[in-house]
Amino acid sequence: MIQKPISVMRVEFISDLVNLINNAELPSYVIEPILKNALDDVRVLMNKQYNQENAEYQHALSHEIENQKKVEEETESKDNTQKKDKQKE
Question: Cα(46)–Cα(43) distance, rounded to whole angstroms?
Answer without folding.
Answer: 5
